[in-house]
Amino acid sequence: MSCMGKVCRKCQKNNHFASQCKTKAIHDIAQPQEESSVSDEEFDIGSVTQENKDGSEVYYMADVEGIDVNFKIDTGAQVNILPYHLMKGMKHRLHQTKAKLKTYTGTAITVKGKTDLAVNGQKHEFFIVDDKHLTPILGYRLAKKFEVIKIMSVTIKEYPTVFGGLGKNHTKFKLINRSSLTSH
Fold this sequence. Notes:
Strand content: 25-35%
Protein name: Retrovirus-related pol polyprotein from transposon 17.6
Order of helices and strands: EEEEEEEEEEHH
Radius of gyration: 23 Å
Shape: elongated
Number of strands: 10
Organism: Plakobranchus ocellatus
InterPro entries: Peptidase_aspartic_dom_sf, Retrovirus_Pol_polyprotein
Largest sheet: 3 strands, mixed
């Protein structure tokens, strides 16, 4: 089935279906700055999911304030998330926040607050959520800092044999222009 002329149900743009849409799924996470400023800063989260035991997700075990926590790596997330029940053994004060977190489906997640937690001995900001079924999320920045992920770039010049002739069609075609055919 061709998508040409169709409108995406996700972004309302033309010529693609929602299943192929490149727009970010979540964009409604806003955290006001600590000062009395009126401006807001927005954060995106790629997904917030429940535990998935089939092995299709990527996880990273980290020491959080002396407790082993299994984080889902989410390169689409700009913030780190920890369910409140995992904080109960930690002696940290939650700071109020007006941040709003939503899943990719638009379901609101109750944010209890935010705090700085020592992860592998280094302090990092976490949003604490009130849902014991949500998986702890290690966002893009922290995953990159801990070298859980690496950004790789490959150039065509570095590997000419791999990319040689890429995009070229070496088959010769003959185009025939028939003046008797008219377009409608």
